[in-house]
Amino acid sequence: MLPELLRADVAALPLRSGAIAAVHAGAAMHCWPQLESGLAEIRRVLKPGGRFYATTFFQATLTLSLTLTLTLTPTLTLP
Question: Where does the pLDDT of residue 60 fall: very low under 50, low under 70, confident under 90, or very high at 90 and above?
């Protein structure tokens, strides 16, 4: 049985391929040393049709060579 919550190195998730239905990365992607490696690992562990939910502080549009395109919208920052 898989844990409900797992905290691990995104570039080396301790899960078998296609093991999980969803991944959440809350305010984390901007901290990953190798963004594309982390996203590739998430893709590996997701079941077909699995979902990846993420928030981050990037303020750009990224196109990645993982058959995955993310459009990131900056959030409003109040003084």
Answer: low
